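Data availability (excerpt). The following record was deposited with the supplementary files.
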Amino acid sequence: MIPFFRKIRKKLSADNQFLKYSRYAIGEIVLVVVGILIALQINNLNEDRKEKIQENKILANLKDEFQENYQNLKYKDSILKITIKNLETVFDELHEKEKSYRDEELDNILSLALGSPTWVPSEFILNDLKSSGNLTKLQNDRLKKLLYEWSRFFSELDETQKMIEDSNTQLINYIKNNGSLRNIDINNASFNYEKSQLIKTNDHLLLDPIFENYVDDKLYVLNEALKQFKQAEELILEILDATASESE
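Predicted structure:
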């Protein structure tokens, strides 16, 4: 009988040892799993931190680019308004009454009216974001929407810029064929020549309805550009505000 009880005790002891080691093994597994989860969490935090640093760099570059665009826009806008003002002066002089300006003054006005105040904003950073796919990774949905809106606006602006160039070229070509471009060019500091000895004045252009139509065409296009410049200013300010609020 005694040997029988000894066997039972030995068996229970063995079972207890098994449970002990089982618990130890399970504890080891739990620790390993927890360690892996912690490591993954740390890795994710590091990746998030790297992405945030990268995004902040992108935002800083976007801010610099659009600030530069804004300053350049304000400068071009001032030139555009000067050109429009002088075109309007020419427009007012298109009649058969006695002219209000001397020949030299008219040539100076025409010189300022022949400006081509096109504005070509930089899109280097934005194009890089598009090509790399990083534009979709931006966390600020408002900023992404504004940048997509800017891209659409840029296409419209580009069309207007081409119209400005075309209308200005047509006006200059008309003056080349019907007046004295030389008398106009002497108002530019880089043109160091005397007035034309062949065509004394350009005042006869003010009596030509074809000239009036060319002036009208350019004036119309520049006024459209003036509206777009205003839209561009508002959109750029919104983009700058979005980049600033996101980086804070």
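Summary of structural features: The two ends are 83 Å apart (CA to CA).
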